[in-house]
Amino acid sequence: MLKLFKLLSNKRLFIMLIGLILFIAVMGFTLGPRTSLSWPEKFVKDTVGFVQYIFYKPAGAIAGFFEDISNLRNLQKENEELKIALAHYTRDKARFNWIEQENARLQNDLDFTNAQKEQYNYTWKIAHVISVNDDPVNRTIVLNIGGREGVKEGMAVSSAEGLVGVVSHVSNFTSTVKLVTTMDAMDPNSNGIAVTAQGKENEVFGVIETYDLSSGTFQMSRIEDPKPLAKDDLIVSSGIGGVFPRGMIIGKVLDIHVGEYGLTYTATVKPAASFTDWKELFVVFEPEAEQE
C-alpha cells in the first residue's frame, strides 16, 4: 500500500497513467458502432474547416491574381504575334497582287509582240520607262536601253496599244523618246506621220502632223477622198517617207469633216495609246536598221 501511494505521488507518472486511460477510453468510444459524430469531433472538424476557409480564400485570390497576370502576358504575346502575322500577310498580299498585275501586263505585251511578229518582220525590244518629262511643250520619256542595245535616233517607240513616239536622243545606256503628242504642223522640226486606214491601204491616205491638246486627238489631214473612210476605222502608219515603220497603230476615226481650205478632208483620230502610267514600252527595230 505504501508502494502504491509512493507511485501515485509521482505526478508525471500519474498524468501518463490518466492519459493512457483516457486514450483507451476514446479509442473504445470511436471504434464502436455510431450513427453520428460526437460533439468534440464536430468541434474539431468545424474549427479546421473554418481555419481552412479563412486561409484558403485569400490564398485562392492571390493565386488567381498571379494567374490572371500570367494570362495577360500570354495574351499580349499572342496579340504581338498576330500583329506580326497580319503585317506579313498584308505585305505578302500586296506583293502578290503586284506580281499578278505585272504578270498579266507582261503576258499582254508578249501576246502583242507575237502578233506584230506575225504581221511584220520587225524586232520589238522591250524597255522600262525610268523617267517622264511632263512639260506640255516638250513631253519626253527616258528608257533604260540605249546605244549598247543598238538603239538609234529616229526609231519608233510603241506601247502594246499603239504608237507612242520616236527616239530623239541616244546615250550608251538610255534613250530619250519624243512623244507624238508634241506634234505641231506649225513646228518645222515636227515630223508628220503618213497614215492610212487598215484594210484600205490602196484607198485612203493622209498625214497626221497635229495633236490637239484640248481634245486629246490627232488631226489626220490631206485626205483627198473620204468615201472609203468611216467612223471607227483603225488608222495605222503607211510607211511612206521612211520616218515611221509601216503598220504602227495610231488610233480610231471619230469623225470626218472638210479641211481648212475646203480642198481636202480632215479626220479626227482618237489615239490608241493612253500616254499615261507607262511601265514598259517597245523600241521597233526594222530589218534594215539591224543590218547596219
TrEMBL record:
InterPro entries for this protein: Cell/Rod_1 (IPR042177), Cell/Rod_MreC_2 (IPR042175), MreC (IPR007221), MreC_beta-barrel_core (IPR055342)
UniProt similarity note: Belongs to the MreC family.
GO biological process: regulation of cell shape
Keywords, sorted A to Z: Cell shape
Record's protein name: Cell shape-determining protein MreC
Taxon lineage: Bacteria, Bacillati, Bacillota, Bacilli, Bacillales
Any single GO CC term annotated in Swiss-Prot or TrEMBL for this entry: plasma membrane
NCBIfam families listed in its UniProt record: mreC
Rod shape-determining protein MreC beta-barrel core domain boundaries: 129-284
Main function: Involved in formation and maintenance of cell shape.
Domain of life, source organism: Bacteria
Record keyword Transmembrane helix present: no
PANTHER family: CELL SHAPE-DETERMINING PROTEIN MREC
